[in-house]
Specification:
267 residues, alpha+beta, eight-stranded mixed β-sheet, three-stranded mixed β-sheet, 7 helices, 26% strand, globular
Length: 267
C-alpha cells in the first residue's frame, strides 16, 4: 500500500485549521495524510450545513475568547478546547476496507483504538444506530459528544472521540476530537438555547462523554506517536513524518481568509 504522510501542525486558529484540512483534500492525489493539530484560541466549529448565526451565541463566544468557524464536514456544533484533533485525508481505497462511509468510519476508529490501547487506554469500538430525537417541537440539535455516530470510540462506556466524515470529489476527509480535558462541557453555554436546554445538554455531555485525562496519564507527543503507530499497525502501511509543502501552506492561508470573510458576512 502507499505510504502515509504524517503531519503535526500544532495549534492554530479555527479558519486556518479548516483551511489546512481543505488544502490537503485538494492535493489528495499526492497520497494519504494523517494530520494532528490543536486550537488556539479555542473554537466552536459548526457543520457545513448549519447556520452559524442560528446555532451559536456569538456574544458569549467573544466574552470567553472562543473563535467560531465552519467545518467542511457535517454534524453538530463542537467546542474544540482541551483536545487533540486528528484528520485523515485519503482515497477510500487507501484504508484497505470497503468503499462505504461506514466501512471507513470503522477502519479509522480501529486505527485510533490501536494507538490508544498501546497507551494502556481501555477503549471499545462500538457500532451504534442513529436515532432522530425531537425536542421542543423540532428536531433536536444536541451537542456532538452526547449524540451517536456509526462507530463510537468509548472508554468506560462513555464517548471519548467524536468524528465527522465527508466524501468530496477529490477524496475522503474525516477529522475528529480526542478529548484531553473537560472544557468541551462548556459548549451548551455558547449556543443559542434556553436555560433549561442548556442544563439538559450540559448533563448529557457530563454523563455521555469522558476525557483522556480520566482514562490515563499521557503527554500529547506520546499520544500522537502511539496514534501514528496504530494507523501503521492496523493498515499495514509505512507512516512517514512530513511537513506541509509551500503550496499547501499557501493554499491553506487563502482558504482561511475566504472562510473568515464569509463568516463575517454571515454574522
Amino acid at each position: 500500500m502507499v505510504p502515509w504522510r504524517v503531519i503535526d501542525t500544532g495549534a492554530g486558529h479555527g479558519a486556518y485549521n479548516m483551511g489546512v484540512d481543505q488544502a490537503l483534500v485538494e492535493g489528495v492525489d499526492q497520497g494519504p495524510v494523517l494530520r494532528f493539530y490543536g486550537w488556539d484560541p479555542p473554537a466552536v466549529s459548526c457543520g457545513y450545513g448549519q447556520r452559524v448565526e442560528r446555532e451559536v451565541d456569538l456574544e458569549a463566544c467573544r466574552a470567553l475568547g472562543v473563535d467560531v468557524v465552519r467545518r467542511p464536514t457535517g454534524g453538530r456544533a463542537v467546542l474544540h478546547w482541551e483536545e487533540l484533533t486528528y484528520c485523515v485525508v485519503c482515497d477510500p481505497s487507501d484504508l484497505g476496507s470497503g468503499a462505504g462511509i461506514a466501512d471507513a468510519h470503522r477502519t479509522i476508529a480501529e486505527c485510533l483504538a490501536a494507538g490508544l490501547r498501546r497507551l494502556g487506554v481501555a477503549v471499545d469500538v462500538e457500532r451504534t444506530r442513529r436515532v432522530v430525537e425531537r425536542s421542543w417541537g423540532r428536531r433536536a440539535r444536541s451537542p456532538c459528544f452526547s449524540s451517536v455516530a456509526r462507530w463510537e470510540l468509548k472508554c468506560r462506556g462513555r464517548k471519548l472521540v467524536g468524528s465527522a466524515q465527508r466524501r468530496l470529489r477529490q477524496g475522503l476527509l474525516q477529522h475528529g476530537s480526542i478529548l484531553l480535558g473537560r472544557a468541551h462541557e462548556l459548549l451548551p453555554q455558547l449556543l443559542r438555547i434556553d436555560q433549561a436546554q442548556c442544563r439538559e445538554w450540559t448533563a448529557a455531555l457530563q454523563t455521555g462523554s469522558i476525557d483522556l485525562g480520566r482514562c490515563a496519564q499521557v503527554q500529547r507527543d506520546e499520544l500522537v506517536r502511539c496514534l501514528v503507530w496504530g494507523f501503521g499497525q492496523r493498515l499495514g502501511v509505512e507512516m512517514r513524518w512530513d511537513e506541509l509543502g509551500a503550496d499547501e501552506a499557501r493554499r491553506a492561508v487563502e482558504l482561511a481568509g475566504a472562510s473568515a470573510e464569509l463568516e463575517e458576512i454571515g454574522a
